[in-house]
TrEMBL record:
Entries under Pfam families matching the protein: CN_hydrolase (PF00795)
Presence of the UniProt keyword Cytoplasm in the record: no
UniProt entry tagged with the keyword Hydrolase: yes
Descriptive protein name: Carbon-nitrogen hydrolase
Family: Belongs to the carbon-nitrogen hydrolase superfamily. NIT1/NIT2 family.
Length: 284
C-alpha cells in the first residue's frame, strides 16, 4: 500500500496552483499511491485574503472544495488537502482556520483538522516577521482517521515543534502522520530534518512531510525537502525543491515489530494534558 507526498511552489493564482496540483496528483495515482498529501496552502500562497477565500468556500461558491472532490473521485485517490482557509462549520462567517481536510476516493470529506499552533514568530532574517494569527484562528482538537494505508493523524507545519500533539496522536492510534508544511528557508535549514525525523522516531509512525519548496510571491522562500520518514527514522524519499510527487510504501509488519521491541508507549512516565488547552482569554 503506497502513499505519496507532493511538493509544490505555489503562487497567488489559485487556478494555476490547482493545475499544478492536478498534474502531481495524477503522477502519484499513476504510480500506485492510494493516498497523497498536498503541502500547506497548496491552492494559494502569499495572499492576505484568507477570510474572503474561506467564506467563499464555505458558501459553496469557491473553486477549491469542488476541485478536491472531483480530483479525488477522478483519480480514485485519498487526498490530505494540505491546508486551505475555512471558517468553522458552525460559523460560516467566522475567522478562518488553517484547515487540513481528508478527502476519500469518492470525493467525500471524512475528517477536518484545524491547525492548533499558529506561526507568530520573528525569524532572524530580513523579512522574517510572521503573524499567522492576524489572518487565522487556531483549532481546538486532535484528529485521527482511518484510511486504506492505515490510521492517520493530521498535523500542519509549525505543529512539528510541539511533540505533545504527536504523542497524543500516537496514543489515539495513529500509524501515519501528515505534516503539510511551508517552512521558512531559514528555520527549515536549521530544524526541518531533525523535527520530522524526531516526530517519526518518537511516535513510531510514518511521517508524511509535504512541503512548499521554492520562491513565492513577494520573494518569500520556503525550504522544501519534502520527505517520507519511516517509524525507525529512515528517510525513504526526499526532494530539495521544485515540484515533485514522491512515493513510499508502508511496511506494517516492520512497524509492528519496532513497536513491540521498543514499547515506548508502555514505558511512558510523564503525561501531557489529553486535550489542547482552551483558547487564551483576551486580557488587557
Ligand atoms: O502563510 C502562508 O502563506 C503559508 N503558511 C505558512 O507559511 C505557515 C504559517 S505563516 N508557516 C509556518 O507555519 C512555518 C513554520 C516554520 O517555518 C517553522 O516552524 O520554522
Amino acid at each position: 500500500m503506497s502513499f505519496a507526498v507532493i511538493q509544490m511552489v505555489s503562487q497567488d493564482d489559485i487556478a494555476a496552483n490547482l493545475l499544478q496540483a492536478r498534474r502531481l496528483l495524477e503522477q502519484a495515482a499513476a504510480a500506485g499511491a492510494r493516498l497523497a498529501v498536498l503541502p500547506e496552502n497548496f491552492s494559494a500562497l502569499g495572499r492576505r485574503d484568507a477570510a474572503d477565500l474561506g467564506r467563499l468556500e464555505a458558501s459553496g461558491e469557491g473553486p477549491v472544495l469542488p476541485w478536491l472532490k472531483r480530483t479525488a473521485r477522478d483519480l480514485r485517490l485519498w487526498i490530505v488537502a494540505g491546508t486551505l482557509p475555512l471558517p468553522p462549520d458552525d460559523q460560516p462567517r467566522g475567522k478562518p482556520r488553517a484547515c487540513s481536510l481528508l478527502i476519500d476516493e469518492q470525493g467525500e470529506t471524512v475528517a477536518r483538522y484545524d491547525k492548533l499552533h499558529l506561526f507568530d514568530v520573528d525569524v532572524s532574517d530580513s523579512r522574517g516577521r510572521y503573524r499567522e494569527s492576524d489572518d487565522y484562528a487556531h483549532g481546538e482538537q486532535l484528529v485521527v482517521a482511518d484510511t486504506p494505508v492505515g490510521r492517520l493523524g493530521l498535523t500542519v507545519c509549525y505543529d512539528l515543534r510541539f511533540p505533545e500533539l504527536y504523542g497524543a496522536l500516537r496514543e489515539a492510534g495513529a500509524e501515519l502522520i501528515s505534516a503539510p508544511s511551508a517552512f521558512t528557508r531559514v528555520t527549515g535549514a536549521a530544524h526541518w530534518d531533525v523535527l520530522i525525523r524526531a516526530r517519526a522516531i518518537e511516535t513510531q509512525c510514518y511521517l508524511l512531510a509535504a512541503a512548499q519548496g521554492g520562491v513565492h510571491p513577494g520573494g518569500r522562500e520556503t525550504y522544501g525537502h519534502t520527505a517520507i520518514i519511516d517509524p525507525w527514522g529512515r528517510k525513504l524519499v526526499e526532494r530539495a525543491d521544485g515540484e515533485a510527487a514522491l512515493l513510499a510504501e508502508r511496511d506494517g509488519v516492520e512497524q509492528a515489530s519496532i513497536r513491540e521491541r521498543m514499547p515506548v508507549v508502555r514505558h511512558k512516565r510523564f503525561f501531557a494534558a489529553a486535550e489542547p488547552r482552551q483558547p487564551d482569554v483576551e486580557t488587557l
